[in-house]
From TrEMBL, chain B:
Enzyme superclass (EC): hydrolase
Keyword Lyase applies: no
Name this polypeptide is given: Beta-amylase
Region Disordered: start-end pairs: 505-536
Signal peptide, first to last residue: none
Length: 892, 536
């Protein structure tokens, strides 16, 4: 299992860069949000947002170096107040190939393995062999006669052999290993090391393995000729370049067949493969700054110059005191200067006519305390100084010369810093602490660095997963799974499920008509699951006086107009098979009687739960119950059940347990929960332990003079109160949101979608994790249509609820309509961006004709006919979905 | 230590080539003179692990150039106490929550590696009865746990297994289904309090030897479980698995469930209740009373004991002066009540030591730290939990003696608790209680291992450190527990710092120069100019 994670750490590029310089390891704030992701190491992608990506650009100040700034009038050097050259290290990527060739040597007795690399630099082959009969994956030292000249044994298990240039002047480095195939050697293992950077180049996160006998188990890291049997095909697929296959082996090897290895009857075959590698090479550049006093204007003139190629933008400001708070100075500014978000200025450096340098001249007031800047390169990477801004002291410079800025609030992208950086910094401190010993051998520090860095990364990884943990199965090969697709999930609670649920109401008001709904739905099970739903709500299953099922009679009789109990069980099974959780629609508020009492009132129940009138609430004259007063509102069409009776509750709990057990329901949709106290619901949920439960708490919104009030706090408060009464064990349908969406869309009053505090105005704004948002159900829409969502605007409604926090519920009629593909796209956006019931939402616009919000800083959405575009900040967005009066963007 | 070092510095190779098994094999395969490793066969010491952090680079260079004699010449100079100290970290309670599923496997794998690199000795794994033998009696599902053991082994860590014959309320891991089903019709298998409430998170000790589980006694069922565990994990026992804790009661601890809701801090507001009201407990009490010639004393528990959340003086039993606990009846009852608990512990620990005694593992049992009201004379919390420990009587002697008899080691939780962080009104003193138990244990030669109650308690890490290095130094500490909080930015750096500070006494400046010389020499031994680069 451990190797598994190794694999995931060292994902595909099979390149592990072990940065050498200490500063290089430091996370750079400035690159946090603005860098070009592609420049980054493959590894950082594993760590989601937790870990700030490692800087690929490092700046080191070195005041002992004092390169003069050219082009600057240094003739009158006495009025040069400040002069500093900052060496800057950039990382450039160089691509090349590793090639591995196995062929017969001239004498046709021995074989030769050649490993080469097309990149310049110093390369070492770190290698060993395994012998026939070895178990495990340990290496052994190869026999002496196999070791090429210059080899150095590394303890007793490996050899380091430097790669030599093939000939003078050629870039190609290679090493040749001769061996006799009749020896006991089963395989040659190696990795390639870049001496300059300390990077190890591996194959699929493991050593390269060249098997010399056939029956070796393929561990996935094998390199070799592709056989028809496909023995190593898995490994080869991973190669970007498998140029030659066995068929193309050198022409001088027709005798292959006779060169059987000792204990195998299959011949050794020559092969040649290449694998592309990327090496990051650091390039030294500099930034020079000189300041002098302008004799004419009594102002300071600052000249900045660099030899970094390409467009370089200085992102700068000034500060007026030690706090180094960025401010924007008064004009004049150099040419090509723009204002950036009122926080800083951006000046494009002008390329000098002579040479490849660029620079700019800044004129500053004398009382300016300091000049702060960072550099932005054309590949959208940032250069800063030891994780801070470059700082040029202008006032009292002699005392602060060379000191760098401490500003922590610079421009937006520079200061944006995940709080989890804490770990890294702490561990940094640990390193510093450790290395303050008088022994300061760089190597020691580097090794410590790398260990601590590794610990930190592992901790970060573990943290990010634990925070949103998933369940994996041991038989799964975790190493092969993509770390980028970690599916966060939170603790399951009955009110929220995992928090990532998307609900489908799996029926409408007409579904009972065919008499075979369960069968029909069963056929769609896999379709529903593939659309991205996680939970499906089935119609009320009990025998009912009304065909739709909401007037239950014998709770244990599950033959209904939707199908038989057996069909239901089959359906639930199929739904489970495709990974859906199933909610049963349970009507607990009321129950229809089987017979009349002595007064001719229907209040005597039959079936397995043969209650009498003590089970009926006492305050509904229609049914003359002898129970207590109802704990909620009365539903007058049928006897309301008195949940305060112990025996009633016991029976209902048993029934729910039976439904869970026998039918396999995972949770409940609780009908008309307004009719009884939420505390009883909690009791039922505690007893039946559903995976998810949602209650239908329905009452009317508040209107003044026929117009819906903007403030529906009282309405949502009542729903919240109910959820509270259940102790949060159940969610509730967010009727408030539906109501407000109605008004907003119908009347083009999108301002309604933000409450006084800038939050969503429905239940979802107050208790998102318990809000089950919906726009339509069997009661409001379908053929009952007593409160139908504004026609033609359904997609706006779904663009809202499917991007917002809360648990969205989709109505059957909508998903299986012409909206289907749009809705599927919305659902997949939700899933892809892992929006969950507690996602953070920021409403950025709520105006007459447009509403826009950003969710989890990943998804931006707008609805309404008005215009909205996400800010063109460094975090680029791309349109993910667009439809009539709505648009959704994803952060790219 | 080179082990960890390798897995980091040369990391990728080693991890992969060796599958991270026992990294020793990396060096030691054909080499028997590896003193560093042979010095302590079963455990690479904490000291050496930690010092790696500091010296790794050099050490590595030494290793890399194959200058072994120099390395071997270096003998450990660290203090013995630290050399022995082994730190474990608990894995999440729900590491495996149904038979074959590892929860957050990837996080655990990463966590294991991080711990290994930090120099942690191993991890503790709770193995739940309700997970392994959930469906029916005798049908065991070990696959998930075996996979975890393999992960741990591959990470080069040790494993301490806690056999949990109790249930967990959060994360919810109940007792086996078939046991709960029996319990539905036969609630007397559970502990029962005065008001008739059952505690369904473990079986009552009164049924230990009654054939209540489909004809078998719980002891027999536990025994079969342990045997099955032993055979399933035989490849790991003695190598990867170095310790096994036997679950003894609620939360695995040897106690009565006297406080239904033991707070995270371990501090409780009330005195708790005696749990002697189950039919079977009452039978035992009755027999005992009749045998003592006081049949009337066997009809129930003390009538004047307060209820769960009440303070001691709210009724007469625990009153500091003139309380019934000091009466002959009180002594009769408390002796019986605590003896039953010790006998129960004895049954389980002798079972465990008979099964695991021939293996290279240490068997542990866990005690609770019932520190509330310790400053009163009666120690009500301890009394209701089954420890007859008062101002005038050492109740832990019998317990420690029982541990000694079974050659078991004792785990004490709450090493992170300090008196100053306890609410004043609870008259609590975790530190005094800890020290009392430790003293008693050392008198009887019972080794004590430590645990914390919860990570993140105020001043917890400092307190742990104090306990680890203090007057009664302990050689094994299990830190609870891996999870989101453990790796969170609020906690993990503190933990790292904690580990580092444990090593502080080792930071001898004169330790390093010699290293430097060695390193320099070792580099000189190499003729190849490239070699020193190996350390990078």
């Amino acid at each position: 299992m451990a190797a598994v994670t190794v694999g995931s750490l060292l994902q595909n590029p099979t390149l592990l860069l072990r940065p050498k310089s200490k500063t290089l390891l430091k996370p750079s704030r400035s690159l946090d949000s603005s860098r070009n992701r592609k420049v980054l190491h493959s590894r950082s992608s594993c760590f989601c947002s937790f870990k700030p990506s490692r800087s690929s650009h490092v700046v080191r100040a070195n005041s002992s170096e004092t390169a003069l700034v050219d082009n600057f009038d240094t003739s009158s050097s006495d009025d040069v107040l400040y002069k500093e050259t900052f060496p800057v290290k950039r990382i450039e990527k160089v691509e090349g190939n590793i090639f591995i060739r196995l062929d017969q040597s001239k004498n046709q007795q021995d074989w030769q393995l050649t490993v080469g690399c097309s990149l310049p630099g110093k390369w070492i082959l770190h290698w060993g062999v395994s012998y026939l009969g070895d178990s495990g994956s340990e290496w052994d030292q190869p026999p002496k006669n196999m070791r090429p000249p210059g080899s150095v044994p590394i303890r007793d298990y490996a050899i380091d052999t430097p790669l030599e240039k093939r000939s003078k002047g050629e870039m190609f480095h290679e090493v040749k290993i001769d061996f006799n195939p009749n020896s006991e050697i089963a395989a040659i293992h190696f990795v390639l090391k870049d001496v300059e950077t300390g990077a190890w180049y591996q194959h699929r996160g493991r050593d390269f393995k060249v098997p010399l006998v056939d029956y070796l188990k393929d561990d996935g890291n094998t390199v070799g000729a592709k056989r028809e049997f496909g023995v190593w095909s898995g490994a080869l697929q991973q190669f970007s370049n498998a140029l030659h296959k066995a068929e193309a082996s050198p022409p001088d090897s027709p005798n292959n067949e006779s060169k059987d290895s000792k204990s195998n009857n299959r011949p050794l075959e020559g092969f040649y493969v290449e694998q592309s590698i990327v090496k990051e090479v650091s390039v030294d550049n500099f930034v020079s700054v000189a300041v002098r006093k302008s004799p004419e204007t009594a102002k300071l003139v600052l000249y900045l110059e660099t030899d970094i190629p390409g467009d370089v933008v200085v992102h700068w400001g000034i500060c007026r005191d030690d706090a180094k708070r960025w401010e924007i100075p008064a004009a004049p500014y150099p040419p090509e200067t723009t204002l950036f978000k009122n926080k800083a200025l951006r000046t494009l450096l002008q390329t000098k006519a002579t040479g490849n340098r660029s620079g700019a001249l800044f004129t500053l007031d004398e009382e300016v305390f300091g000049f702060l800047f960072v550099l932005k390169l054309d590949d959208n990477t940032w250069l800063n100084f030891k994780e801070d801004d470059f700082y040029v002291p202008l006032y009292g410079k002699s005392s602060v010369l060379g000191q760098h800025g401490q500003s922590d609030s610079t421009s937006e992208e520079i200061s944006s810093k995940s709080y989890t950086d804490g770990i890294i910094n702490e561990i940094r401190n640990l390193v510093t602490g450790l290395s303050t010993e008088k022994i300061q051998k760089t190597q020691t520090k580097e090794a410590q660095e790398s260990i601590l860095q590794e610990i930190e990364q592992l901790a970060a990884e573990a943290y990010s997963i634990f925070r949103s943990s998933i369940v994996t199965y041991p038989e799964e090969d975790v190493s092969e799974t993509d770390t980028d697709t970690i599916q966060p999930a939170v603790k399951i609670s009955t009110g929220t499920g995992t928090g990532f649920e998307i609900l489908l109401q799996g029926f409408n008001w007409e579904s009972h008509k065919s008499g075979r709904w369960y069968l029909e739905l069963k056929e769609r099970a896999s379709e529903i699951s593939s659309l991205g739903f996680t939970v499906i709500w089935l119609p009320p299953p009990t025998e009912s006086v009304s065909p739709e099922g909401y007037m239950p009679k014998d709770l244990y009789n599950l033959n209904s107009r939707y199908g038989t109990i057996d069909e239901l069980m089959e359906l639930v099974k199929s739904l489970h098979e495709v990974g859906l959780k199933v909610l049963g629609d349970v009507v607990l508020n009321h129950r229809c009687a089987h017979s009349k009492n002595q007064n001719g009132i229907w209040n005597i129940f039959g079936g397995r739960l043969n209650w009498d009138d003590r089970a009926v609430v006492g305050d509904d004259p229609h049914f003359q119950g002898r129970g207590n007063k109802s704990s909620g509102d009365n539903f007058h069409a049928a006897p309301n059940i008195d949940h305060s009776q112990e025996f009633v509750r016991k029976d209902l709990k048993e029934w729910l347990g039976w439904l869970r057990q026998e039918i396999g329901y995972d949770g409940w949709r609780l009908d008309f929960v307004r009719g009884f106290w939420g505390g009883y619901v909690k009791d039922y949920l505690d007893a039946s332990e559903p995976y998810f439960a949602v209650g239908e708490y329905w009452d009317s919104l508040s209107y003044t003079y026929g117009e819906m009030d903007h403030n529906q706090d009282a309405h949502r408060q009542r729903i919240i109160d109910w959820i509270n009464a259940t102790n949060g064990t159940a969610g509730a349908f967010d009727v408030t949101t539906k109501g407000i969406l109605h008004s907003a869309l119908e009347r083009c009053e999108y301002w309604r979608l933000s409450d006084q505090k800038g939050k969503p105005p429905g239940v979802v704004g107050w208790w998102p994790s318990r809000a089950v948002t919906f726009i339509e159900n069997h009661d409001t829409g379908s053929t009952q249509g007593h409160w139908k969502f504004p026609g033609g605007k359904e997609m706006q409604g779904y663009a809202y609820i499917l991007t917002h926090p809360g648990t969205p519920a989709v109505f059957y009629d909508h998903i299986f309509s012409h909206y289907r593909s749009e809705m599927a796209a919305l659902i997949s956006i939700r899933n892809r961006n892992q929006i969950h019931c507690r996602s953070k939402i920021k409403i950025v616009k709520a105006e007459r004709d447009v509403y826009a919000a950003i969710i989890d800083e990943k998804v931006t959405m707008k609805i309404g006919p008005g215009h909205y575009e996400p800010p063109s900040g460094p975090q680029r967005c791309s349109v993910a979905l667009e439809g009539k009066d709505y648009k959704v963007w994803e952060a790219s | 230590m080179e082990v960890s070092l390798m897995s980091s510095s040369q990391a990728k190779i080693c991890k992969t080539e060796l599958g991270c098994r026992d990294l020793r094999s990396c060096f030691g395969k054909t080499n028997d003179q590896n003193i560093i490793f042979s010095r302590k066969p079963n455990s690479v010491s904490f000291y050496s692990q930690i010092s790696r952090l500091r010296k790794s680079g050099l050490r590595f260079s030494v290793k890399a150039v194959d200058s072994e004699p120099i390395l071997d010449a270096r003998s450990p100079t660290s203090s013995k106490s630290l050399d022995r100290l082994r730190l474990f970290v608990g894995l999440p309670l729900d590491t495996v929550s149904n038979g074959s599923t590892i929860n957050h496997a990837r996080a655990i794998a990463a966590g294991l590696k991080a711990l290994k690199l930090l120099g942690v000795e191993g991890v503790e794994l709770p193995v739940w009865w309700g997970v392994v033998e959930n469906e029916e009696m005798g049908k065991y599902q070990w696959s998930g746990y075996l996979a975890v053991a393999e992960m741990v082994q591959k990470a080069g860590l040790k494993l301490h297994v806690s056999l949990c014959f109790h249930a967990s309320s959060g994360p919810k891991i109940p007792l086996p289904k078939w046991v709960m089903k029996i319990g539905e019709s036969r609630s007397s298998i559970f502990f029962t309090d005065r008001s008739g409430q059952h505690y369904r998170e473990c079986l009552s000790l009164a049924v230990d030897d009654l054939p209540v589980l489909d004809g078998k006694t719980p002891i027999q069922v536990y025994q079969d479980f342990c045997k099955s565990f032993k055979s399933a994990f035989s490849p790991f026992i003695g190598s990867t698995i170095t310790g096994i804790s036997m679950g003894l009661g609620p939360d695995g601890e040897l106690r009565y469930p006297s406080h239904h809701k033991l707070a995270q801090s371990g501090t409780v507001t009330g005195v708790g209740e005696f749990q002697c009201y189950g039919t079977n407990m009452l039978n035992l009490l009755k027999q005992h009373a009749e045998a003592n010639g006081n049949p009337l004393w066997g009809l129930g528990g003390p009538h004047d004991a307060p209820s769960y959340d009440q303070p001691p003086n709210s009724n007469n039993f625990f009153n500091d002066h003139g309380g019934s606990w000091e009466s002959p009846y009180g002594d009769f009852f408390l002796s019986w009540y605590s003896n039953e608990l010790v006998s129960h512990g004895n049954r389980l620990l002798s079972l465990a030591s008979s099964i695991f005694g021939d293996s290279e593992v240490d068997v542990y049992g866990k005690l609770p730290l019932m520190h509330s009201w310790y400053k009163t004379r009666a120690h009500p919390s301890e009394l209701t939990a089954g420890f007859y420990n008062t101002a005038s009587k050492d109740g832990y002697e019998a317990v420690a003696e029982m541990f000694a008899r079974n050659s078991c080691k004792l785990i004490l939780p709450g090493m992170d608790l300090s008196d100053e962080h306890q609410p004043h009104y609870s008259l609590s003193s975790p530190e005094s209680l800890l020290s009392q138990i430790q003293t008693t244990c050392s008198k009887l030669g019972v080794e004590v291992a430590g645990q914390n109650l919860a990570s993140g308690s105020p001043g917890g890490l400092e307190q742990i450190k104090k306990n680890m290095l203090g007057d009664n130094p302990i050689d094994l500490f299990t830190y609870q527990r891996m999870g989101a909080h453990f790796f969170s930015p609020e906690h993990f750096p503190l933990f790292t710092e904690f580990i580092r500070s444990l090593n502080q006494p080792e930071l001898h400046p004169d330790d390093m120069p010699s290293e430097e010389v060695e390193a320099t020499e070792s580099i000189q031994t190499s003729s190849d100019p490239n070699i020193h680069v190996q350390t990078a």
